[in-house]
Amino acid sequence: MNGDDEAVAASADPSLPLDWRFSQVFGERSAGEEVQEVDIISAIEFDHSGDHLATGDRGGRVVLFERTDAKNSSGARRDLEETDYPLRHPEFRYKTEFQSHDPEFDYLKSLEIEEKINKIRWCQTANGALFLLSTNDKTIKFWKVQDKKIKKICDINSDPSRAVGNGTIATSVNGGVPEANNSFIPGGISSLRLPVVVTSHESSPVARCRRVYSHAHDYHINSISNNSDGETFISADDLRINLWNLEISNQSFNIVDVKPAKMEDLSEVITSAEFHPTHCNMLAYSSSKGSIRLIDLRQSALCDSHSKLFEEPEAAGPKSFFTEIIASVSDIKFAKEGRYLLSRDYMTLKLWDINMDSGPVATFQVHEYLKPKLCDLYENDSIFDKFECCISGNGLRAATGSYSNLFRVFGVSPGSTETATLEASRNPTRRHIPIPSRPSRALSSITRVVSRGSESSGVDGNSNALDYTTKLLHLAWHPNENSIACAAANSLYMYYA
């Protein structure tokens, strides 16, 4: 059985381990090439169909990609079965880009607001147009991207009998002006060359900002999430979550407020928030203490209380200085059907069943080999890195990033022991890190380690040197296929299985 046959078999049987392969790369840098800070990708998101992909960078730009192989793979199922049809991997091409945010300055607070895109979320399409939300630290924008026919300007000799652009010249010889007035034109009116606008059959995508949602957050926005009703969305900062209507930009409703009466009493902050994929009245948000709260908007206007609280039972034994830091949840994602919730903290990836709040149903160690290096990670601030996570459309697998541009894929279905360690490069399986064969249920207590070493290097489970400066923070899973897009600095890598 060759590689394509194995990949087809894995696709047919979801329980088989996937064979991940390189698909595409955009913005690949050559060896030794310096990466500009503004070009580093800071957000990735597939749309609901998987036919479009959006990325945002630290320069405030949003770049859109569209799928090109979908229209080529159409055909009767019987025809495809009768043909020796190789596995077709998704192919994307550059569509357009636009400047979403610019650097600003808050004169009231003497605060610089950087243009970096924190999050991108796709909205429902309408009339062939694409809609998406993008946000930096303070301002959310609603964008419409639509193909417009290109209008070209060409010079031709004025001819009263010919149409000009989409209209016609007046029926008189000089367009209605008395002939005597043309005496000042050398050679007469026929010698003039006038610009004419001609609408071509070609089209080009044009981005237009439809709404700007601003002045609603005192702290940095860390999350935005669309509601399944298609009309509202939430935005979250460290202490508050606001509910917006897409059509109303000058008003929002504060639905969660964790700010204490005295700021010195502050013990935790909001780190991520996400709407339930099907129930428009439910949303979840995570905190820096490692807990996840599920709230129901039908209970009250201000959701001070939660419907359910998901948190890891406290492990017995002494706690270290780093215990609370590494417990902070950096990202949460609902599975497509809405029953399971995926969360990522610094060391682990956890899967939760929203019907069972006693603890996670599975815990996956992402980079266990970093435990002895927590002191160094704290000194160079790497311990505060916010890694994102994603879950497959069928809910059977999850992925998250690590250092040295590595990312991990785990089988999360009951009884699955599938794991894969991939590198964001043209050869994703070049490096492998051995991990435990079964996911553990709990994160054991971490004792403080006083070892000293290099601030930017370590050793993984395979004795490979680690680079803490190259970290894979952002990735997204295709909603319908086994395809992952991930960002390594300014490069966008795509893989399929």
TrEMBL record:
Signal peptide: none annotated. One of its GO terms (molecular function) is protein phosphatase regulator activity. InterPro entries: PP2A_PR55 (IPR000009), PP2A_PR55_CS (IPR018067), WD40/YVTN_repeat-like_dom_sf (IPR015943), WD40_repeat_dom_sf (IPR036322), WD40_rpt (IPR001680). It holds the Pfam family WD40. Keywords: Repeat, WD repeat. One of its GO terms (cellular component) is protein phosphatase type 2A complex. PP2A consists of a common heteromeric enzyme, composed of a catalytic subunit (subunits C), a constant regulatory subunit (subunit A), and a variety of regulatory subunits such as subunits B (the R2/B/PR55/B55, R3/B''/PR72/PR130/PR59 and R5/B'/B56 families). Interacts with SIC/RON3. Belongs to the phosphatase 2A regulatory subunit B family. The B regulatory subunit may modulate substrate selectivity and catalytic activity, and may also direct the localization of the catalytic enzyme to a particular subcellular compartment. This is Serine/threonine-protein phosphatase 2A 55 kDa regulatory subunit B. It comes from Eutrema salsugineum (Saltwater cress).
